[in-house]
Amino acid sequence: MVANSFPEGFLWGGAVAAHQLEGAWQSGGKGVSVADVMTAGAHGVPREITDGVLPGKNYPNHDGIDFYGHYKEDVALFAEMGFKCFRTSIAWTRIFPNGDETEPNEAGLKFYDDLFDECLEYGIEPVVTLAHFEMPWHLVEEYGGFGNRKVIDFYLNFATTCFKRYQDKVKYWMTFNEIDNQADFNNDFAVMTNSGLKLGDNNEAAMYQAAHYELVASALAVKEGKKINPDFMIGAMINYTPFYPATSDPADILLAQRINQRRFWFSDVHAWGEYPKEVEAYLERKGFRSDFTAEDQVVLKEGTVDYIGFSYYQSMTVSAKNGDADHLISPADAVVDNPYLETSDWGWSVDPIGLRYGLNELTDRYHLPLFIVENGLGAVDQVEEDGSIHDPYRVDYLRKHLEEVKKAVTLDGVDLMGYTPWGCIDVVSAGTGQMSKRYGFIYVDKDDEGKGTLARSRKDSFFWYQNVIKTNGAELD
Ligand code: P53
Question: Are 90 and 17 within 8 A, CB to CB?
Answer without folding.
Answer: no
